[in-house]
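Sync notes, pocket subgroup
Present: LS, DG
LS reminded everyone that the earlier model was apo-only. Rerun requested with fe (ii) ion included. Inputs:
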Amino acid sequence: VINPSAHLRIAFIGDIVGKPGRNVVKHHLHKLRSEYNVDFVIANGENISHGFGCTIKNANEMFEAGVDLITGGNHSFDKKDILPFLDKYPIIRPVNFPDETYGKGWYILEKEDEKLAVINLMGFFSMPLCDNPFTKILSVVKKLKEDGIKNIFIDFHAEATAEKRTLLSLLRGQVAAICGTHTHIGTDDMVIEDGTFYVTDVGLSGCMDGIIGMEEKAPIKRSTLCLHESLDIPKKCKKIFQTVVFDIENGKTTKSFKLKALDEQALFVSQEAILL
Ligand SMILES: [Fe+2]
Ligand SMILES: [Fe+2]
């Protein structure tokens, strides 16, 4: 029997960058969970450990703060100490990484009778060599549906906006949500089309006044002197916390909005998705 009021509220945080990102998430997560009645918090953790990768220590820090599942991207494997934990923890890497490699590309979160499949997918343009994301995701979604999973969420970790829009066209009406990550800059195109919530990029949580969460000196030298120095997290910065929240009923998103907070200030609704 399908419960007509069956309902899941998800909060998805985009790329958390370094310690400022972890701190701003820790500060706001408790309030987010209690005030907004969130069932699951999912966060992209590919940059959580000093901008590159995710150590098991930092993953545990996020789980203790209230994150239920960590997704990844092109930096998933940057910190090698995470590799043996990928099979035991709710941490996923892109599903179009080779089947033979470490970890898994999707995970099922459960609350009472409700199940949510979370899939991590990586784009093609300017990304490491991986399987075709589009053909791969079609087969994964088909398999999950055959297994009776109706609530499906995809973190699409990609550089190119057109690839992200293409995924929406491919899966419109078939999945509950497609949220973009990787560019670290949030976009204002939140829509719900035939029950599929879509945003090109959620944007980072961390330093908002540097260059996509990093200190500006090294990128400026790269750009003006062709001098490659390693990227660093700013010692001091203006922090932003941002997350999209969406409500799923029977496999479709019915409502979605974005929450932001600057440093330790209060959370506020910055946008609502347009229903198309
Ligand atoms: Fe990232
Ligand atoms: Fe990335």
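DG: The chain has a mean pLDDT of 96.
LS: Helices lie at 18-35, 56-65, 133-146, 161-171, 217-225.
Action: DG to write up.
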